[in-house]
Amino acid sequence: MREDEITEARRRGPDDRDLSRAREDLASQLERRDVPLREDDTADTLVRVLEAVESFERAVEKAGGDLMNNQLRSRDPENPAFVLPRRGEDEGASAYADRVRAAAARIGRAD
Hints:
This protein is mainly α. It has four helices and no strands.
């Protein structure tokens, strides 16, 4: 690639393929955690959700919880407060991320 092509590529920013790959990666990480996704979830909102989920997981671990025993699919979790909140069918990604962060904060206050 020539210098002017590199400069032009940087000026344009990420292309649709880059954004699509980023969204797929985020979606994969969330699906492994049983977080349902919607067609209208953008890469930006999925970043917010993933950050909230990771914050929740850190709060659970800090409080002594086991993420494997407290999954959404767990039939008998050790502590229901340690189970990631389930996303509502009509719940937008940003609203869900806010709710997950609030749940993480509640766990942190329970210490």
